[in-house]
Design brief:
The complex is a heterodimer of chains A (320) and B (209).
Chain A (H helix, E strand, L loop, with lengths): L1 H14 L7 E7 L6 H14 L4 E6 L6 H4 L9 H6 L8 E3 L5 E4 L13 H13 L4 E8 L3 H9 L2 E6 L3 H21 L3 H15 L9 H7 L6 H8 L2 E8 L2 H17 L5 E7 L2 H8 L4 H4 L4 H14 L1 H7 L1
Parallel strand pairs in A: 1-5, 1-6, 2-4, 2-5, 6-7, 7-8
Antiparallel strand pairs in A: 3-4
Helix pairs in contact in A: 2-14, 5-6, 6-7, 14-15
Chain B lengths: L8 H4 L8 H15 L12 H18 L2 H13 L9 H20 L7 H9 L5 H10 L4 H8 L3 H9 L8 H14 L4 H18 L1
Helix pairs in contact in B: 2-3, 4-5, 10-11
Classes of the chains: A alpha/beta (320), B mainly alpha (209).
Chain lengths: 320, 209
């Protein structure tokens, strides 16, 4: 069984004709349990339905579970071997039950707390892009740790997942702040960076009454290259609001976008609201991807629309 | 958002300056929903007080951009770039709009003709109005027959007939009176006086026939 899987995976990989680098999509969230792994697998399945080859990389340090979503047992080959240098990333790709979707097993043998350093991420990303696939989707753990922020920075698409609960919204904002600060760190001299952190802290603690605006702050202060913000305009952070139960929940993404614009002065892109669907937890219990078990639900349609929008926004508009 | 954009209403509603009118309303409803009530999206970012202040700005922005006339004035000022921030505020735009509507009316009345005081006096004191006099006043005020017909919607054929007192080519007297009233109004005359006088002359002439 295992051998078959491996052969199949080799086929999938060698059959892909694309010469250009794979697109790297990174799925992150501030809070755990909002549906990162579910979104990752669903986006992968939707992309595969559109004819693309997808490799999922499970980078959830707190406990990998991409394999569980696909109903697979944890595989002894994991990304640990890549970081230890004993195997290349391409050797670690495993097939799933879904055609054109394969994955790389995350740490599940984490008896000792694991951390991924910025250097490790910098080593991983170029290798991941060289994988013979059209899209690499990285499933991160929750929270704003440095490794997460670094891979988000290097990603082609940065997708944040939030649920409509205030706890998740709060952590999403914190993740956005951390991400911007982390990205600015590289574009600024250390003193300027420390100053911006201090200014942020002062604002947070209420020493200064005005609204904080990143862009204005950067224009006024020296030592930081503000052109970084221009790249945030062309390649914005994307937001998906998961498990919406009401119309107000569905509108929440627009509100969060507006808040980001008014408070941080940069635009995030709200790409979709996903309905709460009992089929999700039921299919997770059955360890079968929901988009495979129930492929014609509105939820599946929402994912397909989201993927289309991400791949070619103009295309979607033309349909409308 | 910054202080400088206090009066950038497009920025407040998060719109492009070329957004269509219906998009303005959609955007307004969206931001209003965001900053009113206790929207969870504000959590840890904006306090209630800040949200209320933002809401005032949002209402102000919509008052300008949601109104086609005010938006046109605002756009003009914004594009020219010669206006101070205060001149882009709702109050300033409203004031400018009022000024425009009151200024326009006297401008329309000011027909391009050279004033002749003596003739004006003559008009004022005139008690007997006939077609000839109407024609004189019309020429004096530089209004062609066609122009008169355009304003009053009276066929220019009848306008000429009224001035020539050409009864054969005129409709029933009740219509003629209406026409004369309209012509008198356009010429800035006392329409009742002119019509009464004209109809008297008209009936006298008609009876002679």
């Amino acid at each position: 069984m295992e051998r078959d899987f491996q052969n199949e995976s080799q086929d999938v990989i060698s059959n892909t004709p694309s010469q250009k680098n794979a697109q790297l999509w990174v799925i992150a969230s501030g809070k755990g349990g909002v549906g990162k792994t579910f979104t990752t697998s669903s986006l992968a399945i939707s992309l595969s339905k559109m004819g693309h080859n997808v490799v999922i990389i499970d980078l959830d340090l707190s406990g990998a579970n991409v394999h569980s979503v696909f109903g697979l047992p944890p595989h002894p080959q994991s990304i640990r071997q890549f970081f230890e240098g004993s195997k290349t990333l391409a050797e670690l790709v495993l097939p799933t039950s879904v055609p054109k979707v394969s994955y790389i097993q995350g740490f599940w043998d984490a008896w000792t707390p694991t951390d991924i350093s910025t250097e490790q991420i910098r080593g991983l990303v170029p290798e991941a892009k060289k994988l013979k696939a059209d899209y690499i989707i990285v499933d991160l753990g929750a929270g704003a740790v440095e490794g997460h922020l670094e891979i988000l920075k290097l990603a082609d698409e940065k997708i944040l997942i939030s649920s409509p609960e205030p706890t998740s919204i709060e952590k999403t904002y914190r993740l956005i702040e951390s991400f911007v600060c982390h990205s600015l760190k590289e574009h600024s001299v250390p003193e300027a960076y420390e100053h911006i952190i201090k200014t942020l802290r002062d604002h947070r603690q209420g020493f200064s009454g005005d609204h904080f605006s990143f862009r204005n702050y950067l224009k006024e202060s020296s030592g930081i290259q503000p052109d970084y913000f221009e790249t945030l305009l062309t390649k914005p952070l994307r937001l998906i609001v998961n498990s919406c139960r009401t119309q107000a929940n569905t509108e929440l993404g627009h509100s969060m976008k507006s808040v980001c614009y008014k408070y941080y002065d940069f635009k995030i892109d709200f790409i979709g609201a996903l309905d709460y669907d009992n089929a999700v937890w039921q299919s997770i219990r059955n360890r079968e991807p929901v988009l495979i078990a129930q492929p014609f639900t509105p939820l599946a349609g929402q994912f397909l629309a989201t993927c289309k929008q991400l791949i070619d926004p103009k295309d979607l508009r033309a349909v409308i | 958002m910054n202080i400088g954009s206090r009066y950038n209403y497009y920025d407040i509603l998060e719109l492009n300056s070329n957004s269509a009118h219906q998009d303005v309303t959609t955007a307004y409803e969206r931001v209003r929903a965001t900053y009113s009530g206790d929207n969870p999206a504000l959590y840890t970012i904006f306090s209630e007080q800040e949200a209320r202040e933002l809401l005032i700005l949002i209402e102000e922005a919509y008052a300008v951009l949601g109104n086609k006339n005010l938006r046109a004035i605002y756009d003009q000022r914004l594009l020219s770039g010669r206006f101070q921030n205060e001149e882009l505020s709702l109050q300033a735009i409203l004031a400018a709009s009022k000024q425009m509507t009151t200024e326009q009316k006297p401008e329309e009345k000011k027909a391009p003709y050279v004033k002749n005081d003596r003739f004006e006096e003559e008009i004022a004191s005139c008690a007997l109005w006939n077609g000839d006099l109407l024609k004189k006043v019309r020429d004096y005020k530089n209004i062609t027959t066609n122009k008169m017909s355009e304003i009053t919607k009276i066929n220019s054929y009848y306008v000429t007939a009224i001035e020539n007192m050409d009864y054969e080519n005129l409709p029933a007297p009740v219509f003629i009176r209406g026409y004369v009233v309209q012509i008198a109004r356009v010429l800035g005359l006392d329409d009742k006086k002119v019509a009464d006088s004209y109809m008297k002359v008209f009936k006298e002439n008609n009876a002679q026939k």
